[in-house]
Amino acid sequence: MPDLHPLIADWFASKGWAPRTHQLDVLASWRRDASALLIAPTGAGKTLAGFLPTLDDLLNHPMEGLHTLYISPLKALAVDVARNLTTPITEMGAKIKVETRTGDTPVHRRARQRYDPPNILMTTPEQLALLLSHGDADRMFGSLRRIVLDELHALATNKRGELLSLGIARLAKMAPNLRITALSATVARPDLLRDWIAQPLPNATTALLMGQGGAQPELSIIASEEHVPWAGHSSAYAVPDIYKIIRDHRTTLLFVNTRSQAELLFQLLWAHNEDGLAIALHHGSLSVEQRRKVESAMASGMLQAVVATSTLDLGIDWGDVDLVVQVGAPKGASRMLQRIGRANHRLDEPSKGMFVPSNRFEVLECEAALEAVKAGYQDSEPPVEGGYDVLAQHLLGMACANPFQAADLYAEFQLAWPYRNLTREKFDRVLDFVATGGYALRAYEKYAKLRQMPNGEWRIAHPGIAQQYRLNVGTIVEDPVVKVRLVRARGNKQGQTTGPIGRGGRVLGEIEEYFIDQLVKGDTFVFGAEIVAYEGMVETEAYVSRSFSDKPKIPSFMGGKFPLSTFLADGVRRLISTPDNWGALPDQVRDWLALQHEQSLLPGRNNLLVETFPRGAQNYLVCYPFEGRLAHQTLGMLLTRRLERARARPLGFVASDYSLAIWGLGDFSALIRTGRLSLDDLFDEDMLGDDLESWLDESALMRRTFRNVAIVSGLIERRHPGQEKTGRQMTVSSDVIYDVLYQHEPDHILIEATRHDAARGLLDIERLGDCLRRIRKHIVHKPLDRISPLAVPVLIDIGKVSVFGEARESAMADAADELIREATGVPAQLGTGGD
Amino acid sequence: MALAATRPDDEESSMLRFTGQNFQPLSSGALYWPAERTLLVADLHLEKLSSYAARGQLLPPYDTGLTLARLAGDMLRTGAETVIALGDSFHRDEGTASLIAADRKALEALTGRARWIWLSGNHDPAPHELGGECLSHLAFGDLMFSHEPRHGQVGLVAGHLHPSARVYINGRSVRRPCFVHDRRIMLLPAYGASTGTLNILGPAFIGLFHFGQLEVTMLGRDRLYPVSPKRLVGG
Lengths: 835, 235
Hints:
The structure holds 2 protein chains of 2 kinds. In chain A, 41% of the residues lie in helices and 15% in strands.
């Protein structure tokens, strides 16, 4: 055991504590001059473990200037940790200066920190990027000895981690002797995270330290007498049971997957709240003050329950939570473990968690998650490979700091793990993009942002570019949002579409623009815990009025951002395909599966079940890949195109996390029976070639991805000195830019970056590819006379979620059709595209 | 589902009858007037994306080329002998000078192939020397061509507002640029590759049309859709 500095040893003794093994392990690795990755669950004293070497070193070798840089994904966390660290430092009587630096830090203090930095600085990846864009950054960071990265598992899986990795590569060049300590929750691939922190310091060794796990969590699925619905995501059936559970616990944290589910659950709970329990709501669309209020009430133990979305996911201490309830599908086992870890921060006591599935498929998913958690399996995402948009942003930042030689910067970028395989060709294209837009047509030489000097160095063309860069740093691109304002209804007189809307009500909050875009006047939805009716857009605000309907017409649910993890998907397939394992399932779910077994087939663990059946005037094709909604949407798009070519006349499709249903006019069963349609060909992996290509240019998902890429890379500015552009106000829409660029230069570096992001994001092409390879030659076709039990949930979704494919154009066709029928005196007969 | 909408090949059925004349709308957003062999286009907004470069936003400089290529295609297909551009042909007056060599050449070829009339718009009020005539408006028989529409002017063909329509039917909705007229005023959709749109039910159109006699033709991917006005929704 390493001997602690006497002041630290005395402090531990005065508290009656002993340092934990993993805390000493981190110190020992530091003394061996190694970096370290510490994997430990929440509440294991990770923060102190991270800073023990710093305290030890600074007590033994006091110094002026910056010694340790702490980086966390949340500024609230940085502030929290600074507070938690200052207390022991003060109690030890040590002269160590700790400060935070976030967007909220006053300008004068930020300026002072650059020439007179504290010993320990707590900050975020964006602030680090800003600091590094100054020419004198090496003066501040030259003395740096340690970097502490908190919650690295959350950072390394997104674009902020890409930006951070590039910042660390620069720090490693300024202070080659620094060492990194990273703290992470339990992940599936700790070795990759270790490589991530080892990459910038090729001469240091990097230890992988596994902290002791806590007690096994106590997990269960809610036992409800009620009927579990076939489909839907409201979990309304279980609300009376959830309410009882809240009453029986001290503080319950209820996690849901989307903002609208949070709204709905909160509303339903209050409808049952006869005892006036203190139940609060917390999600990202609420105002900051409202959220802070909830957080402090929570920390002081005044609340009995909080309904929250992932905004509460990360490691701030939330006081005495004794139960975590996941309402709706868990989607991933690791995410569940991290959420459940919020309950009971004492390692020796088990934390208590409960699942509330909102429909029958989710029962299976919860069951699979339960198994996974019991067995200690992890399915967290691996760290991401670097994107070119973040690279472009960082490259401009480095040019703002100092002129550079391309070869030097290229070598530096390779020290960032996500960019370790970056080719020189790609680097040069990114450089070209930052300098003049990177267009084959060299139209912008005179407006170049970077210019090459006679000695070969690249430098920014004028200082205004650095100013612009600093206004636009960051990789978090919010979905464009609009304010929602409550006004008086303008009445529903027929044909009154352009009259003035009642003015001036209070602002209820903000909502994603793409959600509003799908509404028409009169549509009702839940917002701010009440049901409102859409009145219209007035400039940049969505006007809504109070609605008296008790059921919102538009389910603002979009399934949540997280797709079902591959691991849980496999668990669900295994559970369904093995009747012997159905014992733990509720009776109604077991009966449902048994009925499927009897009337059709059970999807196997490694095959793909495809059912075809007629229903009404249409025919349906339903398949069960269990690969998540995003991959299924992409599959639906591509299959519809192929079915059209095979003259099967598809009309539309709808995708869930578990299955995909396509409907059309052609007799799918007969086409397959007669060999005119081959399922093997239909599901062949080559759809990811040409078909994907021809679909991409009209895909709304590509456009949405492009918008993020264009903003992060600096093609579109979020903010211009003196003004801020948001969503609707942006003078040229990113859709137009995408269309023009894609049509003319489809291999432009930003289109490539968009494909890269879309492949792993909204289109989930990687996963679809894996699935198509897995099921190759393992497609089982079951023609049926009528709908099968397993197909019911996805067919219920038809008409509730937006329909894709030709349906868009066919809305116009239907309206045109109707006009012609009217003109020719034939009564209109509508009714295509769904039930 | 019977697709009753018109295809490019059955042109007769999609003809727009306006002040006693037949006009053929094209899915590109141009309006062809066969009797006068004249092609009408509105709001080309050439050089829009490149106009941001001076402020540091290096947007793809390809919108001008795309718009001109589309125009060349429409001229070839219709055999038009006259082209009338209904104003806002350039996003800014300076656009007439910022054309890159290839686009300038393409435009020269077009203006050399047909009689060309540039009407001035609010974005490009100044006359220029790019071939053809520059006018503020043009009267032709019962018809009047100008950039901005004005209520009460019968027989007016104009642009300026970038009209689009949104239909909502059977639970689906789609919004696309459109031709719209009320037998008095005809508005063309914006033709330029870089242009946005305004819904014809929105505030910009208040008081312009007699809604009872509205005829709306939406632009599909490769065909046109005359739609029932009662299916129109805002947003």
